[in-house]
Amino acid sequence: MLLNYLKSSSASVLSSVFTFLVLAILFSPDFGLDDVPSEFYRYTFTATLFGYIGGLIAIWILWLYQDKEVFTKDKIAIFAAGGLLIGIGLELLTGFIGLPYFLISALVGALMFLVMQKLNNKLLGWSIVAVHFGLLFIYPQVIDFFTFI
Length: 149
Hints:
mainly alpha, transmembrane helix, transmembrane, membrane
């Protein structure tokens, strides 16, 4: 159960951050590749906060629907609605500065949580968790090191 929560929340966070960055780079005139190193950590930290809180709610929802099938219409609708609610909350917190990037990213993250329920490989699950926490805790040290040089 712990690995299920960690791998799903980590994959959710990583997918939502990368979705946001790709959308912002491609479609935002105010955001470019030069902004990625400085903004990546801030987005990862914020998404981790929302992702792990949302992950607790998601695990509770999955516990309520204890049937073996992961991809039912009900679950997909519930997770999509949860992603949209988180996206709307992020848009409200930022004054709609990232519209529709936060909305799409939160939806992708919520659905990724559901997709990760099908992953049964423990090594891959722990690898996803390690990459996420590596980016969260090691990435700032690397950026500080290279800006110092």
